[in-house]
Design a protein that fits this description.
- Keywords: Lipid transport, Signal, Transport.
- Catalyzes the intermembrane transfer of phosphatidylglycerol and phosphatidylinositol.
- Belongs to the NPC2 family.
- The protein has a single domain, classed as Sandwich (Immunoglobulin-like), CATH 2.60.40.
- 4% of the residues lie in helices and 51% in strands.
- It is built from one helix and six strands.
- A four-stranded antiparallel beta sheet has the order 3-2-5-6.
């Protein structure tokens, strides 16, 4: 959830992934394809789903997702770490 202090007419989500501190992946997504534009002033939700390939090596990863407006001004920055184990757990 993000609270837009002003209307947003466009922009993008920028995702960067690092593996043991080495940058390994980048992707950009049109904000208007993730939510409807223009985004009105106030709270709104942007969701992103990513499926990793089966050959993804185990280890420690860091993901940074930024949202920028149509003038490339940063609106948000979310960073989190995650780990992929050697074996998957079954339900």
């Amino acid at each position: 959830t993000y609270n837009a202090g002003k209307a947003i007419s466009g922009g993008k989500l920028v995702i960067d992934v690092s593996y043991f501190f080495f940058h390994i992946h980048s992707e950009d997504h049109d904000l208007c394809k993730k939510t409807s534009c223009p985004v009105s002033v106030g709270d709104f939700v942007v969701a992103h789903f990513q499926e990793l390939p089966g050959i993804t090596p185990p280890g420690n990863y860091n993901l940074k997702m930024k949202m920028v407006d149509e003038k490339n001004k940063q609106l948000t920055c979310i960073t989190f770490d995650f780990s992929i184990g050697l074996f998957s757990e079954e339900d």
